[in-house]
Amino acid sequence: MNADLIIKNATIHTMDDNRPKADQIAVKDGKIIAFDQEAALLQGEETEVIDADGRVVLPGIIESHAHPLHYANNLLQLDLRTETAPSITDILEAVSKRAQEIPEGEWILGMGWDDSKLKEKRFPSFEELSEAAPHHPVFLKRTCVHNAVANRKAFEASGISEDPVDPDGGHFHRNSDGTVSGLIQENAMMEFAIPSVTINQLKDAMREAQEHFFQWGITTIHDMAVSKKELTVYQELCKEGGFPLKVRMWLWGIDQMGWQGVEEEALALGLQSGLGDDHLNIQGLKYMLDGSVGGRTAALAEPFVDDGDNRGILYMPQEKINKHVSRAVANGMRVSIHGIGERAVEMALQAIEQAAPLDENKKHRHRIEHCALPSEEQLERIASQEIVAGSSIGFIYAIGDSYWNNLGEERARRVFPHASFRKHGIVSPGNSDMPVCPGNPFFGMYAAVTRTTVGGQQLGTEETIPVEEAVKAYTADAAYSGFDDTIIGTLSEGKYADIVILEDNPFTIPEEKIKDIQVSQTIVEGETVYKRENS
Ligand SMILES: [Zn+2]
User: Fold this and answer.
1) In what residue span(s) does the Amidohydrolase domain sit (predicted)?
2) Ligand 1 centre from 346 Cα, in Å?
């Protein structure tokens, strides 16, 4: 028997304790069949051989908490964040370019502009946008998503007069001469007849998003908010082919965040965790208990910095989450509960503790998502229930500065405490919550190792972990969190050949360079799905 693929001359970190390192790996029928000398013997005439030229090879990266379809949906809109469009001129250019690409009358949607950061320190006007796209309705959301700007065609297409009446809780902003300025606020945004995205558009966008994930070395992704639309898109993509990304689906439990919950329907149908296959499967039900640190809505034990007695918000009483979790577990569904502040982590813990006897709970590998600020006592209980801490360590890099500002130094030093998780034996996969934060997993590994923010602030050194452990958080531990530890997460004989080859060696480069690591090649089940140019 010859191998289909052999990667040789490689620095392979398998993340498998039984064989931590190797220099050759052989693949047959999408699975790993041999290492080193034994692998070399399997080279035949038909075997594809990749000479890694000494590069580091890791298991395919598993993003354990993301919103891939939201990320994909964003690709359908113009990206107007300051990083990509620093001035109004840039925004108008992007709009008129899109107008030339799509048929007249189709909506041009965009998001991410921020007047406070734009060069002109103002928002693009009604007249400017009407001139940039005279035949297309334009609707561009501000970064906060509570405001937008629109053009004449958008008013016309929505049947809104240019002398509009403000709806309850909304406002059409006007110029000093009384004409509409184009700025639309709060509920007035609902007056616009923006067509909803079609399943076909989403599928195309998801295929494009998949390319981005492969560029980052991600071969498996957990979608934390799956309802009918997401389930439809993933099922159709899997049937149609050309979608090798492995997807793990967490069904959105109840109506929250403006998204419709499907707990009732899922339990009525008798769906259980694990339904599906190695490519696409159902993980469990997801619930949210508190907000965010950036929005000062995470449910903290003590108030936010300089914010009176604001300790954040709990989205429901204890009895309610208890009921949902009990019902889910009784019906064979594991749960994943969003808890950031100590009070939310406490509520999640109590809900899980009361749902089933310890032995049964342990079998489910329930998850507390983000798990930013667990107390020492809570860490012990998380460990004893064998709950997975779905740690959003990527937040430290991308938005850690807001953590420092909103929580103060003492608490910022103990957010996403990976060293403490390890000490307690808590499995703690890393994540980005993409598109909340950038999906590049090397930002998360960098944050785990250095606890340094994009602004250069270090959130203490007590909770730093070695590079090896940071890689584990995005491979073996993430596989465990999805009951995938027998099929992916380490490079081991019999597991899928989901493999990444890196340009730089994370174990030897200076720590500050980990965030800049580029992927050289990504392989899913033995097939190359991404190859960097000039590598
Ligand atoms: Zn999320």
Assistant:
1) 48-530
2) 19
